[in-house]
Fold this protein.
Amino acid sequence: MSTLQQETKEDLATVEHIHKAFPTSEWWRTAVIYQVYPRSFADANGDGNGDICGITERLGYLRDLGVDAIWISPFYPSPQADGGYDIADYRDVDPMYGTLADVDALIETAHELGLRVMIDIVPNHTSDEHPWFQAALAASPGSPERARYWFVDSPGLPNNWPSEFGGPAWTQVEDGQWYLHLFDRKQPDLNWENPEVRELFAGTLRFWLDRGVDGFRIDVAHHLIKAPGLPDFDGDWDAYNRGTLPTNAAPFADQDGVHDIFREWRAILESYPGDRAMVAEAWVTPHDRLGRYLRADEFHQAFNFDYMRATWNAEALRQQISATLRNTDAIGAPATWVLSNHDVIRHATRLVREDQTMAPWILEATEPQPEIELGLRRARAATMLMLALPGSSYLYQGEELGLREVIELPAESRQDPDYIRGGGFRLGRDGCRVPIPWEKNAPAFGFNSSGKSWLPQPEDFGTYAVDQQHGNPESTLELYRRLLAIRRERGLGNAALALVNLGPDLVAIDVTSAHGTTRVVLNVGHVPWTLPRDSRVLAWSACGETMEVLPPDCAIWLA
Ligand code: NOJ
């Protein structure tokens, strides 16, 4: 053995049992859920924007991938000022995406294929083109129409809150009042103290539950309630963004009043047959604050963004795994895991950026293009760790192809308000939303048959196309398929977990179910790790290398 190789004597390894198996029949406790960003997934009518029929046509692909459910980002009528998270009607479909009948057909086909369907609910704000906001603008200060939003009188900016996308969170209207928008000025915040707002959303949940959806992803669940009097935020904005400040330090986030809303919603879900579930998009830290959203009468799940933020470092990953399981176990909720979504730099790029403590959605214009090959290598390894963890995991469309962030998008094609309001310092999130490549040699790489694409696809996307990866055992797509199949066969979703100490640069876990123990080892160090002689390799993330050692930036599943 080379002196540069690390080897662990089995009898020296210490094992710390941190999570017990949780036998369950509730699908959401162990599900792998695939996020579809509809504008960029598949475009059936060739207008350059993905659509509902495009998704329905590709559901067989998702069933074959091995996921349990899909979550579809908003497809409702919207001026698209924030990629559809600016909604003008919560109970219809934007003509760009299709019709309500198309959604009904999607739900039916998904159910026939054994896939559940979750959709997005965006309760913090409407579009400024929503009839309520139009009525508020037409009405006078102090009117019931304005009372559905946050309109205030103030000689200057009412407080120092920033918009998430840059600039102040306030815009002044003609008669001098200001309205609040934590996001774009075209996304006015609703006033959740107003019973009409509560009724609108209770009715909206019922509308979609009646159509057969299996659950909801709730957008910025932590923002709905604001501190009384709308006081200034006097904390450190950078610490808030990096997730090192408890979220409720900000008067516009994680306020205790939000929980009453979700209790009411949980009761609505419980009144329907079947296991309907809701997941909180709540950028709340630390774990125990997030745990409050997961109490038995609130959310079924919450995205684990602290795990997503973990840097490429063994101690950081181990710490996040134990903190997550400790907190969710204490309240009987399932852990969740996520590496990518439509808001953050794709993990095939993020895991090689220089400053990994930076908020994962902030891509500065000065950031150099990180190394693509190393990024993919790390992404595959990171996914191998994630998909072995007990609980529920979220995948984002295209990560199963190993897609990278498209940093080099031309300025004129960028559409994200984060770029537009950010004055060019931040590139925004368009780079993770570029339409998916399905076929290397087809127009728009098979996204449609017309060749149009609302964001330009880079030349190298052809090499990532589904048809290039299908059937190639070394491809990322086949790796995902294999991992999902093994995860199912070996019951990893509700297994027990122990942390195994094999060395400082290795994240090693034993995942044990009735089907046996799966040992997962991830090497985040610089030297290879010698594989134990007596174990069988179930899967590994390296490509074109012999299976004698676990090279740096790779992971392995052993039986
Ligand atoms: C979170 C969504 O995921 C993001 O895309 C959106 O910009 C904000 N919420 C505002 O709705």
